Amino acid sequence: MPKTHPANSRLDPGLRHLKRQLIEVGRLIYERKYTTATDGNLSARTTTGKIVITKSGVCKGRLTDADLLVCDLTEQAVEIPGISSEYRMHLAVYDNRSDLNAVIHTHPPFAVALSLAGITLDRDILPEVAMQFGDIPTARFAPPCSGMGAEAVAELIRDCNAMILDRHGVLTAGHDLWDTFYKLERLEFAAKVTWLARMTGALRKLTESESALIEEAAKNYLNKP
After folding, report:
1. Residue 7: its pLDDT value, please?
2. What is the pTM (predicted TM-score) of this model?
3. What is the pLDDT of residues 10-25, one digit of tens each?
């Protein structure tokens, strides 16, 4: 059975730093209303190949060291008392992408609203979507806190770093916690702009020539050092 680490380990300053980051990012997520009450979860991969993940049922705006659990990247994580009910989604990311070291799952209102309305974040509407993400797919519907949710994430995460979870929320992943948080911010901004535009009339899609220019610019942007 995997064991949790002490909340303030004197032997691993890197782990302490990672926990500080998780607490800070959790506070920002809550303050900016990307999640409410005790919803959502976040995690980060340690240098030793484990992950630090939030406990279930805790407010992300009030996280403490005691709310952050360390576990192995195995299904045995379910044996850790209080582990996030969505831990399988996080494992699905880490199992499929060795280049991703942080995962954030939240319920930002505009992205969720688009999902309920059946509206996707098309790259041929907002240049920023193509520039920052390439594609933002919508994962198939799965009941929250289920293995089906992890399967839905695993189907898409090999080809993207952000996705909308149908009628549920969003998942973003990145090379570190801040990269992952900024992806969440950009995704919700794109969702908000798309929603507001739909409220004022039909969306104007990029023309073929405009899309070609954006794709070329995106290649240079996404491949820059």
Report:
1. 39
2. 0.87
3. 436 689 999 999 999 9
In DSSP terms, 106 is beta-bridged to 170
Check if the beta carbon of residue 83 is closer than 8 Å to that of residue 158: no
13-222 is a CATH 3.40.225.10 domain:
yes
Torsion of Cα atoms, 21 then 26 then 8 then 95, to 10°: -80
Dihedral angle computed from the Cα positions of residues 222, 154, 19 and 21, in that order, rounded to the nearest 10 degrees: 30
Per residue, what are the HEC states of 187-198?
Answer: HHHHHHHHHHHH
Is the pLDDT reported for residue 139 higher than 90?
yes
CB 70 within 8 A of CB 88: no
CA angle 127–175–15, rounded 5-degree value: 145
Q: What ranges do the domains of the chain cover? A: 13-222
